Amino acid sequence: MPILNGDSMASSATNSVDFSKALEVLKNEYPERDGIDIKTLLDSKNHGGLTYNDFLMLPGYIGFPAVEVSLDTPVTKRITLKTPFVSSPMDTVTEHNMAIFIALLGGLGVIHHNCSQDEQAEMVRKVKRFENGFITDPIVISPTTTVAEAKALKEKWGFGGYPVTENGTLRSKLIGIITPRDVQFHDNLDDPVTAVMSTDLITARQGIDLKEANQILTKSKKGKLPIVDENGNLISLVSRSDLMKNLHYPLASKLPHSKQLIAAAAIGTRPEDKNRLQKLVDAGLDIVVLDSSQGNSLYQIEMIKYVKEKYPGIDVIGGNVVTRDQAAALIAAGVDGLRIGMGSGSACITQEVMAVGRPQATSIFNVTSFARRFGVPCIADGGIQNVGHIVKGLALGASTVMMGGILAGTTESPGQYFIGQDGQLVKAYRGMGSIDAMEDKKAGAGSANSKASNAGTARYFSEGDRILVAQGVSGTVRDRGSITKFVPYLMAGVQHSLQDIGVKSLTELRQGVVDGSVRFELRTASAQAEGNVHGLHSFDKKLYS
Ligand code: IMP
């Protein structure tokens, strides 16, 4: 039998080597750890600014299962989340639906402000009122609604059971329920629904928990369980068709001792934003994000001081920043969190047009290493295209990552899916500094879903500007399904990555990076090519199932 070269080398080497000494030899003869520490990695004297694809982390030792990796992390000085995922305040990304579902999954959605003050406040209210499994804004009809109108509602909404209340609104006395069966064969279409509605109602009292409500619903054999207050006023509804969907969300983002989800919203720094903030606070806001592409301004510093003084219970996230100097100014003004990124967003052309900005990895490292000294958590905002980018943002010192484009294609983002030019299912995604979005601001049109007046963010343009200079583009992103599947995938991916690095939590990751035990490696262009799929004739990149 032929002896292979490698085999002969191995056998001659094994004769003289004591394997049991491998760890001892490593310790005594290789005092320098493999790879480089973060400071060496980011030292811009060695190269220019770096971004996510320019480096990798080296693997460590796996001594625990991935599911045990904790992703608990602060988003502000006072508020901790169970997952590090934050959705961008953009009108194609975060309205109440995204904010609710990402909070249920342990993250945070920042509601955009390209809409009227009242619309934004209503979205905050919906997040605060949301109780998993309870429909808190059901369609309610009045006793004068006709059978024809009830049938038309079914056509419009696709479901047919509606509570009937005295005033035709929520929080008014419940008098009956109309179901598709009640109206299906009723020929006199002009009859009021009171002629056919069911009045033998099974209801439950406000305060009941979802488990009990589901038990009553199952026993009752009815389609809907109205929840009423002590006066019989309709408060919410539990639906049989939702029974299976009423999942338990153990990671849901809530303040200690609160049953409500945490609500965050963005505002600008103009005088009228103070009115906006008051409405948001009245609606139950917990965190305000001051939305500016260059946060180190007189206006933002004054706004931070104003918010901290007038609303001590509200946490303020300032930004955006990419340098220590910018961060220091906002920290000195009193921010509870910082948002890092300028020009890294997927729909962003700031660096091209303004010639100002910074590569994202360099920005994150410089800002977080400074902010850490003051206990101010940072959000790595923009440029996240995959799980690896998330882990890198966190390893560089960010506590959370903010995502726009990667979440814009999910079911929970605003807007409808449509078929794109290549026949794929897509959704619209636009930078808030795109001409489209800025013209909506000027015209007061607000988000795709709203007819707002008094709208307008000041993130990318000032009122006096005669020419709008775009800092973003508008386009489409492909369908990513529901975030109830996508975010758990991101979470599992981050847990597996941390397991490979050999750390059991985000806290251990940050500590390991600071003390130099988590090691890095720069990636050349050819190393990057090697790290991607290559040499295949064709392939299908399915990310999770
Ligand atoms: P993405 O996750 O890479 O799509 O980046 C989202 C981030 O891009 C947002 O959170 C904002 O910080 C930033 N952004 C949003 N709109 C614009 C724009 O028009 N120009 C530049 N940056 C933008």
From TrEMBL:
<feature type="domain" description="CBS">
    <location>
        <begin position="197"/>
        <end position="253"/>
    </location>
</feature>
<feature type="binding site" description="in other chain">
    <location>
        <position position="343"/>
    </location>
    <ligand>
        <name>K(+)</name>
    </ligand>
</feature>
<dbReference type="InterPro" id="IPR005990">
    <property type="entry name" value="IMP_DH"/>
</dbReference>
<feature type="binding site">
    <location>
        <position position="346"/>
    </location>
    <ligand>
        <name>IMP</name>
    </ligand>
</feature>
<keyword id="KW-0963">Cytoplasm</keyword>
<dbReference type="Pfam" id="PF00571">
    <property type="entry name" value="CBS"/>
</dbReference>
<keyword id="KW-0658">Purine biosynthesis</keyword>
<dbReference type="GO" id="GO:0003938">
    <property type="term" value="F:IMP dehydrogenase activity"/>
</dbReference>
<comment type="pathway">
    <text>Purine metabolism; XMP biosynthesis via de novo pathway; XMP from IMP: step 1/1.</text>
</comment>
<dbReference type="Pfam" id="PF00478">
    <property type="entry name" value="IMPDH"/>
</dbReference>
<dbReference type="InterPro" id="IPR001093">
    <property type="entry name" value="IMP_DH_GMPRt"/>
</dbReference>
<dbReference type="GO" id="GO:0005737">
    <property type="term" value="C:cytoplasm"/>
</dbReference>
<keyword id="KW-0332">GMP biosynthesis</keyword>
<feature type="binding site">
    <location>
        <begin position="341"/>
        <end position="343"/>
    </location>
    <ligand>
        <name>NAD(+)</name>
    </ligand>
</feature>
<feature type="binding site">
    <location>
        <position position="526"/>
    </location>
    <ligand>
        <name>K(+)</name>
    </ligand>
</feature>
<dbReference type="GO" id="GO:0006177">
    <property type="term" value="P:GMP biosynthetic process"/>
</dbReference>
<dbReference type="InterPro" id="IPR015875">
    <property type="entry name" value="IMP_DH/GMP_Rdtase_CS"/>
</dbReference>
<keyword id="KW-0479">Metal-binding</keyword>
<feature type="binding site">
    <location>
        <begin position="404"/>
        <end position="405"/>
    </location>
    <ligand>
        <name>IMP</name>
    </ligand>
</feature>
<comment type="subunit">
    <text>Homotetramer. Seems to be able to form heterotetramers composed from more than 1 of the 3 IMPDH gene products (IMD2-4).</text>
</comment>
<dbReference type="GO" id="GO:0000166">
    <property type="term" value="F:nucleotide binding"/>
</dbReference>
<keyword id="KW-0630">Potassium</keyword>
<feature type="binding site">
    <location>
        <begin position="381"/>
        <end position="383"/>
    </location>
    <ligand>
        <name>IMP</name>
    </ligand>
</feature>
<feature type="active site" description="Thioimidate intermediate">
    <location>
        <position position="348"/>
    </location>
</feature>
<feature type="active site" description="Proton acceptor">
    <location>
        <position position="459"/>
    </location>
</feature>
<protein>
    <recommendedName>
        <fullName>Inosine-5'-monophosphate dehydrogenase</fullName>
        <ecNumber>1.1.1.205</ecNumber>
    </recommendedName>
</protein>
<dbReference type="InterPro" id="IPR046342">
    <property type="entry name" value="CBS_dom_sf"/>
</dbReference>
<feature type="binding site" description="in other chain">
    <location>
        <position position="345"/>
    </location>
    <ligand>
        <name>K(+)</name>
    </ligand>
</feature>
<keyword id="KW-0560">Oxidoreductase</keyword>
<comment type="similarity">
    <text>Belongs to the IMPDH/GMPR family.</text>
</comment>
<feature type="domain" description="CBS">
    <location>
        <begin position="134"/>
        <end position="196"/>
    </location>
</feature>
<dbReference type="InterPro" id="IPR013785">
    <property type="entry name" value="Aldolase_TIM"/>
</dbReference>
<feature type="binding site">
    <location>
        <position position="471"/>
    </location>
    <ligand>
        <name>IMP</name>
    </ligand>
</feature>
<dbReference type="GO" id="GO:0046872">
    <property type="term" value="F:metal ion binding"/>
</dbReference>
<feature type="binding site" description="in other chain">
    <location>
        <position position="348"/>
    </location>
    <ligand>
        <name>K(+)</name>
    </ligand>
</feature>
<feature type="binding site">
    <location>
        <begin position="429"/>
        <end position="433"/>
    </location>
    <ligand>
        <name>IMP</name>
    </ligand>
</feature>
<dbReference type="InterPro" id="IPR000644">
    <property type="entry name" value="CBS_dom"/>
</dbReference>
<keyword id="KW-0520">NAD</keyword>
<feature type="binding site">
    <location>
        <begin position="291"/>
        <end position="293"/>
    </location>
    <ligand>
        <name>NAD(+)</name>
    </ligand>
</feature>
<dbReference type="GO" id="GO:0006183">
    <property type="term" value="P:GTP biosynthetic process"/>
</dbReference>
<comment type="function">
    <text>Catalyzes the conversion of inosine 5'-phosphate (IMP) to xanthosine 5'-phosphate (XMP), the first committed and rate-limiting step in the de novo synthesis of guanine nucleotides, and therefore plays an important role in the regulation of cell growth. Part of the gene cluster that mediates the biosynthesis of mycophenolic acid (MPA), the first isolated antibiotic natural product in the world. Does not play a role in the biosynthesis of MPA, but is involved in self resistance to MPA, since MPA acts as an inhibitor of IMP dehydrogenases.</text>
</comment>
<keyword id="KW-0129">CBS domain</keyword>
